[in-house]
Amino acid sequence: MSGGVNRRQTLIGLGAIVSVTPALIAARQIAGDWIPELAGRWDVVFTVRTGDLATVWVIEQTPSGTTSVATVGPNPMALSLREVRRAGRTVRLSGPTSVGEAVLEATLDPARLSGRFTAGDLGGTFVATRRPDVRSHSVEEIFDQTITTFEEMLFTPVPFDAAWATRKAELRATLEGATERDLVRVVRTLIASTGLSHNDYTLEPSRPPSSAGGPSEPAVTWRRLDRRVGLVRIAGFIEGSEARDLLDDAFADLAETRGLVVDLRGNSGGNLGLAMWLGDRLFADQTRVGSFATRRALDAVGVATMDALPDDAYDTFDGYEVEAFQDALTHAGAVRITTGGRAPNYSAPVALLVDNRCASTTEAMAAVIKESGRARLFGAATAGRMLSSRRLPVLDGYTLRVAYADFRTPGGAVVEGVGVSPDQISGEGEAAIRAATTWLRSQG
After folding, report:
1. Which helix (DSSP H) or strand (DSSP E) does residue 70 occupy?
2. Closest to 306 in 3D by CA, of 403, 165, 382
3. CB-based contact 62:68 (threshold 8 Å)
4. Is 97 within 8 Å of 77 (Cβ atoms)?
5. 254-300, pLDDT tens digit by residue?
6. Cα angle: 314, vertex 315, 318; to 5 degrees
7. Sign of the C-alpha dihedral, residues 273, 275, 279, 281?
8. What does each C-alpha distance from 31 to 27, 62, 75, 113, 310 come to in angstroms?
9. Through-space distance between the first and last CA atoms of the chain, rounded to whole angstroms
C-alpha cells in the first residue's frame, strides 16, 4: 500500500466521525430513593473465584432525587447500576453487566460497604471503601480542562474541525446542573467520537487489587509438535528479564527444529521489551519494526499526519525498555524502531498465528514479520488498535488516557482501524496450528 493511499485512508477515517447528539449521552433512568449516607466516591473490589476486579464508583443524587451509582473507573464487567433500594440497614443495587444481570447486597455503612453479588453465572463478594478525594471544580471546568488537554496531546489535529467544535459545544451545554456521572459520560462520548483507540477517561482505583483476574497464562511457553516442528506461545509482551529468559530457553530448546509456529493469538500487546527480544531471534540483521510520531513532530513541520514527515524528523530506537522508548519519543517527537541481529538467529521457516484479539505491540510485530516475508501469517485479521498512549492527570483526580503517537509499518501502512490480515485464513484452536504445521512441512 502506497504512502498516498495510507494518508487518504487516515484522513477519511478521522474525518468520518460519528455524529453525537445530547440524546446519546442522556442519563439512563435510575430507580430508587436517595440514600445520603452513600454520597461520594468509593473504591470497589469484586472478588471472584479467579481473582479480584477493581473499579471506582461515584454515588450522588440526581436532579429527580434518586441515587445514582456511576462506574467511573475501569469496568471489566461493563456494570451499569440501574436500581438502588434500601430496606432498613440493607442496600440492594442491581443492573446489567456483560455476563448478565447483577444483584449486589450489603449492610449500609457510610464508610464501608461489604456484601455479596451475583452477575449471571458469576458470583462472589465485594467491598466498597469510601475515598477521601472529592470533586472541587464544576463539571464545566473539568470538561474544559480535560478536552483542552486531549486536543493538545492527541497525535493529530485532523479530528478538531468545525464539526468537532459544534459537537463539543453541544455536549458541554448538557452539563448545566449535571452530575459527575454525566460529566464522565460526556467526556467519554466526545473523545470516542474520534473513532481512535487508546483513549479513555477514568478515576483510577486508589490501590490495585491483590490479584488481577487470578492465575494467568505464562508469558512464554513452548513444546515440540513433532520431531521437525516446534511451537512457541507468547501470551503477552510483558516487561522483565524472567519472560526474556523464558524466550531464550524456548529458542535454545527448539533450535534444531526445521520449522517454528509462533502463536500470538489473544496477545493484546503490552510493552516492547519482549517483542524486541523476539525480533532479535527472528531477524539476522537489524530490521525496522515501524515508526511512531507525536503531535510535537507534526507541529514542528506544520503537517497533519505522519505520512508527510521528512526522513530527518525521525530518531532511531533499538532498546528494550519502555521508559527509554517513551523518553526517546518525547525528546525526538518521531522514532523508528529497529530490532534483530543481536542474538542467535533462528533461520528456519516460521508460521505466525494471529487473531482479532491481537493489538498494539503484537500488531507491530505481525506487520513487520508479514511485510518482510520472514513468516507466513495464519488465523484472522488483528484488532486494528495500534496507537501509543499515555495516561495524564487532569482535574479532580481523573486520568485521561490519550493516543499521543501514531504508527506506520516499515512499508508505510496504517494499522489503526485496519489491522494486519493473515496470509491464510485458518480455523481456531488446534485447527490453526495444524494449518501452520502443514505449511511448514511443505517448506522442506
Report:
1. strand 67-71
2. 403
3. yes
4. yes
5. 999 999 999 999 999 888 899 999 999 999 999 999 999 999 999 99
6. 130
7. positive
8. 12, 10, 21, 20, 57
9. 31
Q: Cell triple for residue 305?
A: 499526519
Q: How many H-runs (helices) and E-runs (strands) does the chain carry? A: 10, 20
Edge-to-edge strand list for the sheet holding 375-379: 220-224, 229-234, 259-263, 350-354, 375-379, 424-425
The cell numbers describing 101, all together, are: 444481570
Q: From the CB of residue 430, how many other CB atoms can be counted at a distance below 10 Å?
A: 9
Continuous segment of H or E residues that includes residue 293? strand 287-294
- Phi, psi for 200 (deg, rounded to 5): -165, 170
What is the SS3 assignment for 434? helix
Residue-level length of the chain: 444
Say what the pTM is. Answer: 0.83
Q: Which of 283, 385, 411 is nearest to 342 (CA)?
A: 283
What's the CA gap between 76 and 202, in Å, rounded? 13
Alpha-helix runs per DSSP H in 161-319: 162-173, 180-192, 241-253, 273-282, 295-301
Which residues are bridge partners to 100 per DSSP?
97
Span 204-239, pLDDT tens digits = 999 765 544 444 678 999 999 999 999 999 999 988
| DSSP notation for 156-183 | -STT-SHHHHHHHHHHHHTTTT--HHHH
Separation CA 158–CA 160 (nearest Å): 6
Complete domains list, the chain, with CATH? 3-25+135-203 (no CATH), 36-130 (2.40.128.120)
Quote the DSSP letter at residue 205: P
CB 423 within 8 A of CB 378: yes
